[in-house]
Amino acid sequence: MTIKDTPQEWEIRATATPFTGNKTSVRTDDVVMPDGTVVGRDYQVHPGSVAVLALDEADRVLVLRQYRHPVRHKLWEIPAGLLDVPGENPLHAAQRELYEEAHVKAEDWRVLTDVYTTPGGCDEAVRIFLARDLSEAEGERFAVAEEEADMELDRVPVEDLVRGVLAGELHNNCLAVGVLSLVAARTGDGLDALRPAQAPWPARPFEA
């Protein structure tokens, strides 16, 4: 049997949007269950995101330390950001985030994995890229503000990140999924067997 997620949409009798924020909103749908009952489901509507596991020639991952107010923690993360424009090419968004957050560019891009971060309460889809052959970006550094003004940047060996994830010391979703997927890909068919950077993404369709 092939283990594969499949699209499906149950009937919605009514929908409302009780809250709309700058980037996301909250939606309430009345969904028909298999037994015919109708149940309300509240969830966050999200534009989608991209994240970048940037791997240098010394087998270190570029990571950022940033304050995240909802969880009251400074978390080590990989560069990531929102898909600001509907239908935006996720590769272009990932290249932008790597430049803005780390002032780095990469020559080799591949899709590492695609995930739904919290499918029980949010429709956010994230594409995590692997970026290699890194170099310093040209031009002016991107001006940072708010939480990003306090952000720290480092490069950490892959094995140290794996240890931290498994020890419960590193909690960021994209970092954990990214580094563990990297290790899995290496022990499987290898990094060159990963999907190309412009691979289709049904969760967030885009123009190549």
UniProtKB/TrEMBL annotation:
PROSITE patterns for the chain: NUDIX
Pfam families: NUDIX
Nudix hydrolase domain sequence ranges: 44-183
InterPro entries, alphabetized: NUDIX_hydrolase-like_dom_sf, NUDIX_hydrolase_dom
Protein keywords: Hydrolase
Coiled-coil positions: none
PANTHER family in the cross-refs: ADP-RIBOSE PYROPHOSPHATASE, UDP/ADP-SUGAR PYROPHOSPHATASE
Stated name of the protein: NUDIX domain-containing protein
